[in-house]
Amino acid sequence: MGILSWLFDKRAAVWQSDLVEQHLVEVENIYRQMRGWRHDYHNHIQAMKGLALGVSPELDAYLNRLDEDLVRIDTLIKTGNVMVDAILNSKLSLAQSRDISVNAKAFVPKSLSVSDIDFSVIIGNLLDNSMEACAKIPDKTKRFIRVYIDVMREQLYISISNSTHGRARRVGAFYPTTRSGLHGFGLVRIDRIVDKYNGYINRQHEEGIFATEVMLPL
After folding, report:
1. What is the value of pTM for the model shown?
2. Which of 125, 166, 168, 175 has the smallest set of CB atoms within 10 Å of its CB?
3. What domains does the chain contain, in order, with CATH numbers?
């Protein structure tokens, strides 16, 4: 049992490093794009709208649509914590690109007792699993992810729920996934992090929906 536990911890540690690296790449890409051309793009559209004024109603409508798209590219959510914003916006933008409806509300203090890496593992894994579950739903109109984060009774409350195709399958303490062949290791890692901070976690699953609640001390 000792060897199995050691092997599990080693594999989990490797998985955690890969996950954090993946998050950092996603965050770097989306924020580099936004910083690099969002402001210039908006100015270019305004200039073109001025030049096209009265020339063509179709062209003016087209430029207006481009401007609206630019607004949608802006951050989906602003929590008050820069690192949390980066993690959430990278994942939620990815979800939207996969035809998943996103509803997110969050307020997070600027400083947390939870490390950035641990928070990345919790949020990143929960949202990755949510996206995986939604991808299995044939009807794209039924795909959704709901995120709610706030301070509650001097603790950070995290609630993430998603639509599912039927009922989530549970094997013992695991909810098997197909992602990277890890079969629920990510959820076990979340449990260990929550336990590390003496927090609380609750999972609920029923026909068509899966929900996770996490509470962490501030």
Report:
1. 0.70
2. 166
3. 2-217 (3.30.565.10)
